Every structure is written in C-alpha cells, then in structure tokens.
Amino acid sequence: MERERHCFFILRSWAVISLVSQIYNIPGNLGSFLLLWMLLCLPLIYIMRSSIVSLLYLIGITYYACETGYWSFHSSGTYFYWLLLLGALPHYYLLYKKQSGSNFMILHNWIVPLSIVISLGTVTDRTGELMYISYFSLFGLFSLMGKSQFFDLQNSLNNAYKIVGSLGTIGLLLALSFDWFWMHLRTGDSLFTYAIGSPEFFAAVTLTLLAGVLFFFQHVKSSPTDFVFAFFIPIFFLGQVSIIAVVLINVLVFVIGIFKIIEGVKKDHLGIVNYGLIIITALIVCRFFDTDLSFIFRGILFVLVGVGFFLTNFRMLKKRKAND
Q: φ, ψ for residue 73 (rounded to 5)?
C-alpha cells in the first residue's frame, strides 16, 4: 500500500506540473520539464525514505539524459544528469548499509550501472572515438566492482556490475573486431590535435584512473575482462597508424574465451565454460561476415563448434559423476 501511495504521489506531481505549465503558458521543452520534475522528486527520496521513488527517479534522469543528449543534439543540459545522479547516491549507500539483501537493493544494483552506461554517451562532442576508451574503462570499473567483497558474495544474477562489465567488454571487443572502425580511425583526422580538453578526453581519463586505482587494490581477484581497458588504450593509438590493431583485438577476444574455458574447468563451473565457448563462437561468427570462406567450410566450422560444446559439457558432467 505504501508503494502504491508513493507512485500515485509522483504521478500526481507530474500532472500538476503539466497543468501549471499549460495554464500559465510557461515556455520550455521536454528536457526542461523533465529536469524540473526530477529536481522536485529528489527531496521526496529522503523525505519519504522511499526506494521506489529512488528507482523511478533514476529511470527519470536516464530519460532526461537521453532527451537532452541524444534526441536534442548539442544540448548543454546533459551534464545536469551527473549532478542528479549524485543526488540519489546517498540513498543507494543507506540502502546498502541497512537493507543490503533486499529486492530494492538488487534493483538499484541493476538500474544504476545501466543508467550510467546509457547516459555516458551523451558527453560525446567532437572526438567520439575516445568514447571507446571511456566505455572500456567503465566496463572494467564495473567488473572490478563486481569482484568486491559485497558483490562477490551475491548470487551471480544479482551481481549486475560484474555481468554488465563483462558483457559490455566482450560486446565492444566483438564490434571492434571488424575493420570498419579502424579504417575510419586511420583515414580520419588525428585525434591529438583537438582531443585534449574535450569532454570525451575528460571522461576517458577520469574513468581510466578510477578503474586503474580499483585494479591496483583488487588485482589478485582480477580476470582478463577486468583489465581489458589497460590493453585497449595502446591498441587504440596503434590503430591510428597500423592495421595490426584489428588483429590484436581478435587475438584478445580469443585469449579471453580460452581463459574463461580454463577458469570454468578449474572451478568445475559449466556456466563459465559455456561462456568462454560462446565468446569464441561469437568471434568465429563475426569473421564469417568479413571473409570469403565457402559455405561448405563455414558449415564444417559450425559443426566443429557444436561438437566442441557437446564434448566439453559431456566431459565435465562425466567428471562430476566420477567425483560423486
């Protein structure tokens, strides 16, 4: 009943703001309306001590960031998102201290990183290529956060930071395993002439430093997907002058897949083993789109991959039965 009352209160406030704007013909657009609405909702999180208001607020500021950063190009309002996000973090921390095992905590653990991932791209201005460094560092930061003492004890599906960090890293690597990005990077203007001082440069440096500091304190628990950002930075700058960058990205994906398989075998964890196999399979599928292999050879490769899946899972299950 308490949750329904909070939702009704927020919807009523939205209706009141809309009516006042219409009656008095207050000028503005959707972005300014969302900003006003979120500013009015922020105190309600702490006055009502309501986690559902906090979740709705986080969704609202994410929509605000998309409206001002993606759908209203070159809008300066996108930077308010980060201040609005900081306003909700104290409640997130209190939730962690007092209700760390609650469903609201789990939902916050998913909404916060997803909101940041969606909104980070809104800082893009002139040097959008640098955002790849920012995203790799962000995903590395999330992966390392997922290895922290609190999140490491959570159920695998509840560890959103680890999942988002790992899947985001692999997804970016697979996207960059094609030559289209590197060709654009080699033929475009040099980034060194106007990158320093840009918002993309600031985002890349800040996130890389944060991920580097966290990696320094948690390197014992780290896996390859946690520090891909450290390898990607030199590969990125090498890619401006050499085609070897795309080869290194493909090798990096393959090595991560092999490492995951080995890690899964050591831990006797079928999920990790299959994740490694899926990474290698995805890499093979990606190469089908930019190579001139015959359909027969492609079919044989797919059969071999399927056989690999079957044999690996069969051997692990057989090993488990033998140990029982």
A: -65, 140
